[in-house]
Design brief:
Blueprint (H helix, E strand, L loop, with lengths): L1 H23 L6 H24 L15 H36 L2 E3 L3 E3 H5 L1 H19 L10 H4 L3
Length: 158
């Protein structure tokens, strides 16, 4: 999924570059470039986020956790992982509900391409579901959701 997200980012860069070059040369560029970029901006984070969780590269705030020591830190990290799983599952559930409704209602996203809306939004519940799975894997292994380097400066104090 991360490779697909990276490929989409490269394609977005190429589409933007071609669009700018065509406009500067006085040609009319394709409206499909803009539509593709909008769709890719939805897919890139949903494809890349599960990989970031697995690699512990997601955004985190360590201000509270870094002040805790020993068992208190472990419990807090477990609680954060559980809350992360719960939030991801709620967002996945809601996303599946939206995609399901879009599918059965036959909703379309009408732009330069007429695409079924469910095909565009289905990446949201899938991304959040896989993020929940990744957080659960870390919790099951007893690993922190933070990279080890996040607390190096306080390890000697533990």
């Amino acid at each position: 999924m991360a490779v697909a997200a990276g490929a989409l980012m490269v394609a977005m860069f190429a589409a933007t570059l071609i669009d700018v070059i065509l406009r500067n040369l006085g040609f009319q560029s394709s409206a499909h470039f803009f539509t593709f970029t909008e769709y890719a901006l939805l897919f890139v984070p949903m494809l890349g986020s599960p990989w970031l969780v697995r690699e512990k590269g997601h955004v985190y705030v360590e201000i509270l956790i870094s002040t805790l020591r020993g068992p208190a830190r472990r419990r807090a990290l477990q609680a954060i992982a559980v809350v992360s799983i719960a939030v991801c599952l709620v967002l996945a559930w809601y996303g599946f509900d939206v995609a399901w409704h879009n599918y059965w209602a036959g909703d379309k996203d009408v732009r330069t391409l007429d695409l079924p809306r469910w095909a565009l939004v289905v990446c949201i519940p899938l991304g959040f579901l896989i993020m929940a799975i990744e957080f659960a894997r870390l919790l099951r292994r007893g690993e922190s959701i933070y990279p080890e380097s996040a607390f190096e400066r306080t390890k000697s104090e533990m």
